[in-house]
Write a structure and sequence with these properties.
Layout lengths: L7 E6 L7 H17 L4 E6 L1 H5 L6 H18 L7 E4 L4 H10 L5 H5 L2 H9 L8 H4 L1 H11 L4 E3 L5 H18 L7 E3 L32 H9 L20 H9 L2 H7 L6 H10 L4 H27 L2 H29 L7
Parallel strand pairs: 1-2, 2-3, 4-5
Helix pairs in contact: 3-14, 4-8, 4-15, 8-9, 10-14, 11-14
Bound molecules: tryptophan.
Tryptophan binds next to strand 1 and helix 8.
Length: about 350
Amino acid sequence: MHAKNKNIILTGDRPTGKLHIGHFAGSLKRRVELQNSGAFDEVYIMIADAQALTDNADNPEKIRANVTEVALDYLACGLDPSKSTPFIQSQIPELTELAFYYMNLVTVARLQRNPTVKAEILARNFEASIPVGFFTYPISQTADITAFDATVVPVGEDQLPMIEQAREIVRSFNSIYGNTLVEPKELLPENSVCGRLPGTDGKAKMSKSLGNCIYLSDSPDEIKSKVMNMYTDPNHLRVEDKGDTKDNPVFIYLSAFADDGHFARYLPEYENLAALKAHYERGGLGDVKVKKFLNNVMNEILEPIRLRRIEWEKRLPEVYEILKKGSLKARETAAGTADRVKAALKINYFC
Ligand code: TRP
């Protein structure tokens, strides 16, 4: 039977690029807090290289290189291998095995309805040429989650349909084959702004190909130039004009990152974000001043991360050792689940 009454976290990222402040606000920060909270028996953090290959089949070098980048980003953000288990998805073949059996419980129509997959297919211009592996990744993601008996999956809002899909598969598996799998719950960011940070250009999402991301590894000069060039309210032409703070990425970033302490340290003439917003909205507050403040906030948050990253970059063999150890441990857990699943499916012939 599965691990009863345990609190287990599983979450992860596709290694298609370095991680950026959207990842930090939407999940990394929270993960580290959860890891340190002591409320969880296990915390598994997966680098989803197999999932990344589902739409990067022609570019394995890119995925391989970014496995290292993502591992460095994790460690830089405070992932502590003595409290969490970081691992590489492809090193756990049981995940592929589980996904194969779960595929029998999901219809093509159900996958086609998945709003995240729909949006991703559009964004990648796949049209009729969707790789089957990509199309079925919600099922593989269910394997990732259930292999570890995860009870809690901390994710951004865009991943909600995946958790719903996982719950459906778990329910139908358990109802057909007997109680075998654990039903997961999502854990969304507390501040809803954090779940969906736009790009510095105001586009809905940060994406490497759009060049609109602030990376955790950016230098202070890169951050400054990205912040000072950010898209704001296009109708806020003169300082005295009224400004919009709702669809304005500078204010969206401030909502995600600035606290009252930042105001006290860098912009004491405003008590808090509400006061700054009010001034911008009634007119008389220039973009440059707000951007300079945002730059100070971003630097305060990103500096310790950048410095830790630089330290880990000098210790790559240790980073690989951490990933190897994590993958071995993860495999052991997943193998236990795969045994349970195969017993439930009556395909445990030689046990
Ligand atoms: N799809 C997730 C992303 O793109 C990565 C991922 C793969 C994941 N498997 C997972 C997240 C399981 C949570 C749980 O970021």
